[in-house]
């Protein structure tokens, strides 16, 4: 069996995927036309050509602009469904995607519109594709904690439709502790919590995500490698890191894939997982991320299998379901 087939047949969970980041240029164009929006691009090739960024902020500026074509419940359904078809093709049996409500509510789209479109697609995937999912509501960290509280309130009528809250967007200057109270409130309401930390930000942000937000997982966390004491904690407590290799190289967290530390972390016993982050922007879905590790870091089949097992273990699935998949 070749490596692509081997990776595809491994049952995998995806734990770090921004639905807005799965908006492919072709669908962006289609939704723009459907909604009477004029894009600043002549065609699909021009959209792709505009994806020039070499840090997180430059990427985010383009990503938020792309999300403007999402307007109706059907748009959010189509976005989510297209992603789920990719999951099916690549052996992702369970996914825990993020959505960024503030990206949409701040431009006048109601929370109800987006949650209904996304949830309907996730439900249909369960019955038609055999893919299970838990949704994660992510707060934008460049906005205020007050705005995050308002978003959580707005979401409460739909509390059974998401399992966790997260924290994403511009990391530098927006440390986890800025959101300590809203995360405490979310936990008190019974939600799991995750946060992006240690992507561009320092190991100190990983420490504060753990100690001040009490998160269940760290999204990215690759810069923890710089801090031996933090590495030991991650290993001792088996705190999952949702690592996104193609994202990290596109945003120059690592200069080259051959510099990526994920397999070193894996071999040291850190609970690392492989994920695609924003696949429409970073050049690949989850299988392409595994393949990049094979091509640039000589990932072995045993390492690939362990990464896939980790993804199931690090998910929020009940233990019985985890065991039945692994
Ligand atoms: C993101 Cl790569 C990344 N980092 C932080 N926030 C994000 N939102 C979407 N992609
Ligand atoms: Zn992310």
UniProtKB/TrEMBL annotation:
The keyword Metal-binding applies. Binds 1 zinc ion per subunit. It catalyses: adenine + H2O + H(+) = hypoxanthine + NH4(+). The keyword Nuclease does not apply. The active site is at residue 199. One of its GO terms (molecular function) is adenine deaminase activity. Its EC number is 3.5.4.2. Keywords: Hydrolase, Metal-binding, Nucleotide metabolism, Zinc. InterPro entries: A_deaminase_dom (IPR001365), ADE (IPR028892), Ado/ade_deaminase (IPR006330), Metal_Hydrolase (IPR032466). Zn(2+) binds at residues 16, 18, 196, 277. Its cofactor is Zn(2+). It is an enzyme of class 3 (hydrolase). GO terms for cellular component: cytosol. The record marks 220 as: Important for catalytic activity. Substrate binds at residue 278. One of its GO terms (biological process) is nucleotide metabolic process. Residues 11-326 form the Adenosine deaminase domain. Catalyzes the hydrolytic deamination of adenine to hypoxanthine. Plays an important role in the purine salvage pathway and in nitrogen catabolism. HAMAP family: Adenine_deaminase. Belongs to the metallo-dependent hydrolases superfamily. Adenosine and AMP deaminases family. Adenine deaminase type 2 subfamily. This is Adenine deaminase.
């Amino acid at each position: 069996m070749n490596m692509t087939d081997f990776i595809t047949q491994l049952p995998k969970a995806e734990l770090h995927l921004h639905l807005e980041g799965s908006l492919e240029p072709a669908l962006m164009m289609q939704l723009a036309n459907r909604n009477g929006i004029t894009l600043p691009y002549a065609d699909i090739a021009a959209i792709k050509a505009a994806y020039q960024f070499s840090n997180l902020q430059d990427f985010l500026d383009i990503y938020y602009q792309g999300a403007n074509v999402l307007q109706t419940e059907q748009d959010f359904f189509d976005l989510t469904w297209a992603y789920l078809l990719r999951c099916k093709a690549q052996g992702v049996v369970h996914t825990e995607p993020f959505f960024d409500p503030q990206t949409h509510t701040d431009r006048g789209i109601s929370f109800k519109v987006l949650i209904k479109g996304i949830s309907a697609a996730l439900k249909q995937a369960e019955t038609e594709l055999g893919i299970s999912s838990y949704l994660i509501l992510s707060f934008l960290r460049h906005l205020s904690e007050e705005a995050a509280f308002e978003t959580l309130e707005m979401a409460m009528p739909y509390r059974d439709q998401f399992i966790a809250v997260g924290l994403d967007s511009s990391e530098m200057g927006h440390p986890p502790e800025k959101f300590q109270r809203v995360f405490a409130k979310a936990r008190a309401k019974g939600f799991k919590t995750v946060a992006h930390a240690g992507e561009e930000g320092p190991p100190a942000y990983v420490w504060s995500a753990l100690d001040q937000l009490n998160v269940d997982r760290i999204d990215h966390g690759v810069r923890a490698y710089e801090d031996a004491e933090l590495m030991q904690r991650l290993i001792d407590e088996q705190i999952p890191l949702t690592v996104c290799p193609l994202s990290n190289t596109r945003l120059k967290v690592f200069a080259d894939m051959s510099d990526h530390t994920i397999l070193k972390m894996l071999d040291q016993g850190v609970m690392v997982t492989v994920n695609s982050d924003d696949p429409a922007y970073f050049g690949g879905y989850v299988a392409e991320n595994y393949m990049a590790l094979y091509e640039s870091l000589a990932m072995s089949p045993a390492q690939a299998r362990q990464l896939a097992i980790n993804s199931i273990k690090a998910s929020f699935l009940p233990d019985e379901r985890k065991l039945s998949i692994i």
